[in-house]
Amino acid sequence: MNTPNLSRRGFLGIVLLAATMASVAAPTLDLERLDPVANDQPVPIRDFFRPAYFSSLQLNFAGIHVAALVSGGFDKYRMMVVDLAKNDLEVLPGIGRMDVNRFDWSTDDRLIFSLSLENQWGGALAAVNGGSWDNPYPLIQSGRHSLIGIPESDRLRRLPWVSSLGRGKDGGIVKLNTDVNSAHCVDLQRANVKSYDYSLGDDYNRKSVPASFPVPEGGIESGDLSDTDGDLAYSYTLKDGISTLQHFNGDAWSASPVDREFVDVLGVSEDRAHLNVNQDRYDGAPSPVREMDAMSGEMGRVLLEDNGYDFEGDLYRDRAPRLPVGAVFDWATPAMVWFEQTYQDLQKLFEGIFPRKIVRIVSGNQPGSVFVWAVSSDVDPMSHYVVDLDKKSLGPLKASRPWIDPKGMNRMKIIKYRTADGHKLDAYLMLPKGRIEGLAGAPRGVSSWWSGGA
User: Fold this and answer.
1) Angle at the Cα of 70 (from 322 to 368), degrees rounded to 5?
2) Per-residue model confidence as pLDDT tens digits over 169-183
3) CA-CA distances (angstroms) from residue 415 to 412, 418, 430?
4) What pLDDT score does 213 carry?
5) Which site in 83, 141, 287, 401 is 20 to 30 Å from 176, CA atoms measured?
6) Cis bond before residue 42 (omega within 30° of 0)
7) Are 170 and 248 in contact (CB under 8 A)?
8) Can you tell me the distance from the alpha carbon of 336 to that of 362, in angstroms, rounded to the nearest whole number?
9) How many angstroms separate the CA atoms of 363 and 34, rounded?
10) Contact (CB, 8 A) for 201 and 208
11) Nearest alpha-carbon partner for 91 in 80, 102, 101, 105
């Protein structure tokens, strides 16, 4: 991938994200307000805990559309799709009363997304196609599920794990035919549900599943991994409190001797026989990111290591194949480290455009020519920009928390302290310059820096 110099000219234009969302505001909290409060007014503490206006941005493979979760600042999530060429956006209606909590592009014109009802995991799995964004259709209904991979050999056949396919039929890892669009939403949460409703939902589920994979032995299945081509590669089973890594060779499962007590698996490496892992250390030394032979447990090369901090983050992967090219993590400040020179050059270039800011790649297209970047600082919540390297253009998207005024924020303070058992920890103090309203009733559990925007 070439990395030409970017120009500040040729802006794509500001994409206005003024989506109309259903109001669920509490009487004492104005969630409809998108602008910062006036300078002479106290800042409501809940402004710092409102859901980001939009999050989880993801380009399609061609880099023509951006999809994202959008809340409008409410505790209700839908999907939106932005046409970058036309500067148009569309907020998708969703299905019934359910929230969208995860999505992926299967093709340039098809999104697969997970829905939940009242924050319960895995309410339904659905799809929607370009040209008819207002007409989503369910694939799996009324069953817990998790998304595993999208096989590059056939992107219309998604690999999810599902808890069941209906009464009397267990689930597992299945091949899902996302072309099956004849199902209708069956609301099994309503009053007076009939036996026929359950049978209808079961029939719809089974039509979408042409095949399934063998179930790994050795306990309850607790997680799965796909390789860099999106094919099923590993599973975790849990028995008597012990988690075992299982390897899939295309036909059958075999247990790995890897002791998961000492590693956190981050994903599959370029060679599917090897994993990228966070090596847990119990000698007080920070944990590094390494490659590991999945069938022997032997550690390989070190990808990332710091002298003072454990690795807390994830790997950034190219779009297809999904090769690990960098790491996104939090140390004293949020950071990115790249394993490839092209990405190192791109990071340096963008840091020059936004000096004294934290800049991160959020998503890229398959050719590696269009990227969505997240830009933030200790006083400025996350904003996003679309960079087109071929066109040498840079265009902003709307801020994820427009109700926070960066000019009204004090610089963040990092406080270092030692716990009673000797561990060194960082604390982050973020305060506005003026008065704060409602501090006594503030929520708890704030993550470091701004969260939820990427």
Assistant:
1) 30
2) 557 899 999 999 988
3) 10, 10, 11
4) 93
5) 83
6) no
7) no
8) 11
9) 26
10) no
11) 80
